[in-house]
Amino acid sequence: MRYRLVCLDAGFTLLAPRRTLADALRGVLAEHGHAVSDRDLHRAWEVADRWFWDDYHRPENDTWNDDERIDAHWRTYHSLMLRELGLQDLEHRVLDTILGAQYRPDSWELYPDVLPALAELRAAGLRLGIISDWGSNLLPIVEGLGLDRELDFVLASGAEGVSKPDPAFFRLAAARAGVPPGEALMIGDSYRADVAGARSAGMEAILLARPEWRARREPAPDDVRVIASLAELPTIVSEG
Question: Domain boundary residue among 78, 106, 134?
């Protein structure tokens, strides 16, 4: 077998929010007596989402290297939605509530293909780990979902002080597993962060384009292997 280590991104690769961030905000606003229309909420979400991705792809972005900066980043994100909805005066009352909910394990769920795929990979003798641009609160989320039982390690950028696509983050994962980067495979939903980052560290990489996110996938070179489900992974790995 060619690979000894399989690394995976967390968000939208292994787990997804039970409610979108927009819907979660709608619920918190309703608790404060503010009803918002679908149209206004969608417009506010588009503003915040555009800011998120522009910032994420900013050269030399170090937001995800530090827990405090990550928290500030999400506060800005939700503040943008509130301001777009004309509810700026609610920021201090709403932000702590919405972020507290966002960080709870029960706000997340695993995709149906995750546990069966990881079980097959572990049965084949591979080491498995997460490499994610996330705060230190990723670990209790992973534990709350029971995912930690299938993994050898979880690396969250906010805890490690390094983030994607820095090759040092991927080399750290290989070192944690005691495996050379050339014997590791990375799977994630971002070409820039997951595929290009892993390749720069000497790993091979696969882009995961789940059907519900395919329309928003970043352009990727023709030589990038793309899969639609983690159910495809065990066969790919066994064929090496």
Answer: 106
Question: What tokens does 151 get?
Answer: 């993994």
pLDDT at 214 over 60: no
Domain endpoint, select from 106, 141, 159: 106
Domain count, the chain: 2
Could you say which DSSP state residue 218 is in?
P
Contact 181, 129 (CB under 8 A): no
Beta strand pairing status for 108-110 and 15-17? antiparallel
Domain that holds residue 133: 5-16+108-239
Residue 88 confidence (pLDDT): 77
Nearest to residue 49, comparing CAs of 80, 91, 11, 82? Answer: 80
Q: Is residue 204's pLDDT more than 90? A: yes
Looking at residue 217, its pLDDT comes to 59
Answer positive or negative: Cα dihedral of 57, 60, 63, 64.
positive
- Residue 23 confidence (pLDDT): 85
Contact 21, 202 (CB under 8 A): no
- Which runs of consecutive H residues, i.e. helices, occur in 32-163? 38-56, 67-84, 91-102, 114-123, 138-144, 157-160
Q: Which residues pair with 8 in a beta bridge?
A: 130, 187
**What is the per-residue pLDDT across 146-184, written as a single tens digit (0 to 9) for each?**
999 999 999 999 999 999 999 999 999 999 999 999 999
- Two tokens at 118? 């990881």
Give every CB contact of residue 18 below 8 A, 6+ residues apart in sequence. Answer: 106, 107, 108, 109
Higher pLDDT, 1 or 103: 103
The verdict on 152 and 213 lying in the same domain is yes
Distance of CA 69 to the CA centre of its chain: 16
